[in-house]
Specification:
2 domains, Carbamate kinase, about 425 residues, single chain, VC0802-like, alpha/beta, six-stranded antiparallel sheet, eight-stranded mixed sheet, 14 helices, 18 strands
């Protein structure tokens, strides 16, 4: 059920913002939420790394301001691994000179990348003619997390400060990827954490839309580095986007998609260097005349395939899916014979399976390709057709599992590129624009 932040009573706001009972938000928030049209724009590391990139980001912000929006900007650390202030660079520095430091101090170090980016971006905006800009760290923006340093979860958002500045007409630039515990310690939100920051703040301030700016022009039908003919995907449902993101496609972090889905917040993934509309992610299932029931294909390169054998000495037999509930699991064959994971099956896997009467018999490296589309249920013959095409192309197919929303293949790692190109043709995506 949708929880709407643009409501007129303090009790509903308290529930939506996860504010503890007794800490009722100020009634002044209600007028701000209903009278302001708020747009959240998140810029990734490559979208703020160079002066030219920051100039492009300013153009997107200015266009939103001129359209009448109050703009909340969330930024990631500048650049990628090897660039001075990128998160991976800071992490490599920490591991090289300080391999045994406490996790809370590591988070303090890693949070610096986004803080630097915020100040640089804000000053670039001012030099470009946008005078009313204010910078906030994650904690200053009201991001409260649990104590999970390195991969913290947001438990509460206190947006009073952000709303105050938006109401005053400022463009608010917030450091993504970071928050604070209730005891005041800095935390980081893990890989893709700036997306989660953007979604959480958008929900808290009642934004109309989240725009995610990257170095690609929206979501593609496959990774264009592997499938050069991959085309644009104009629309995805929340479920489709979540499945693609969880299956290896770098679009929006799965946590951010789930947050947006909960609050019915549309997300538009756009290229910072493009004027294209990109990909819209929302709850709709629009009628589609596209030739394919598949929207896109995601992949993961380093996956393990493990076969399961039932141990007759254990009294009660439980399905592997039940035994593994709560543990990270990529694929379990309907027969219960095999599974795929993002890494070698952990000790927790083995323990849970043994309790249910199963043991891991064999493990081999492989790769995984996942085709996603909400119309797959309309074409039940597609999984078998795809399997046959893979075999015809001499792709070693180790496992296949399908549902009404996706088809997942485990293939030999050496055959992944060929498998993706075959599937792209089989599903009719090569001719899609």
């Amino acid at each position: 059920m949708r929880q709407d932040f643009r409501v007129g009573n303090a009790i509903a706001l308290m529930r939506c913002l996860c504010v503890p009972r007794g800490a009722v938000p100020s009634r002044a928030w209600n007028g701000w939420c209903t009278s302001m049209r708020v747009l959240v724009q998140k810029f990734g590391g490559t979208s703020v790394h160079t002066p030219h990139a920051r100039c492009r980001a300013l153009a997107h912000v200015m266009r939103a301001v001129e359209a009448g929006y109050r703009v909340l900007v969330v930024v990631s650390a500048m650049g990628r691994s090897g660039h001075p202030y990128a998160t991976d660079t800071l992490l490599a520095l920490a591991r090289g000179v300080w391999p045994t430091g406490p996790p809370d101090e590591l988070d303090l170090l890693l949070s610096c990348g986004e803080l630097i980016a915020c100040v640089v971006v804000a000053n670039s905006f001012r030099r470009g003619g946008l005078d009313r800009v204010v910078v906030l760290s994650g904690p200053q923006a009201g991001i409260i997390t649990d104590d999970g340093h390195g991969d913290a979860r947001i438990v509460e958002v206190r947006p009073e400060t952000v709303l105050h500045h938006l109401h005053q007409g400022y463009v608010v630039v917030v450091a993504g990827f970071q928050g604070t515990t209730r005891s005041g310690k800095i935390t980081t939100l893990g890989r893709g954490g700036s997306d989660t920051t953007a979604a959480a703040l958008a929900a808290a301030v009642g934004a109309e839309l989240i725009e995610i700016y990257t170095d690609v022009d929206g979501v593609r039908t496959a990774d264009p580095r592997v499938v050069p003919e991959a085309g644009a995907v104009p629309h995805l449902t929340y479920d489709e986007a979540w499945l693609l993101a969880s299956s290896g496609m770098r679009i929006v972090h799965p946590r951010a998609i789930r947050l947006a889905a909960t609050h019915r917040l549309p997300i538009r993934v756009r290229g910072n260097f493009s004027e294209d509309e990109g990909t819209l992610i929302d709850h709709r299932h629009p009628s589609c005349s596209a030739p394919s029931a598949v929207k896109a294909i995601a992949h993961r390169e380093r996956v393990s395939l493990a076969y399961l054998i039932y141990d007759d000495r254990v009294g009660s037999r439980q399905k592997p899916t039940q035994a593994l509930r709560g543990l990270s699991c990529g694929m379990v064959d309907p027969s219960g014979c095999m599974l795929c994971t993002g890494a070698y099956p952990s000790g927790a896997w083995a323990e849970a399976l043994a309790t249910a009467g199963w043991r891991l018999a064999l493990e081999r490296p492989c790769a995984e390709a996942t085709a996603v589309g909400y119309r797959l249920a309309e074409e039940p013959e597609l999984p078998l057709a795809a399997y046959r095409d893979l075999r015809t192309a001499a792709v070693e197919t180790l496992a296949m599992y399908h549902t009404p929303l996706y088809i997942r293949f485990a293939v030999a790692a050496a055959d992944l590129t060929r498998a993706l190109r075959v599937l792209h043709r089989t599903f009719g995506l090569t001719t899609q624009t």
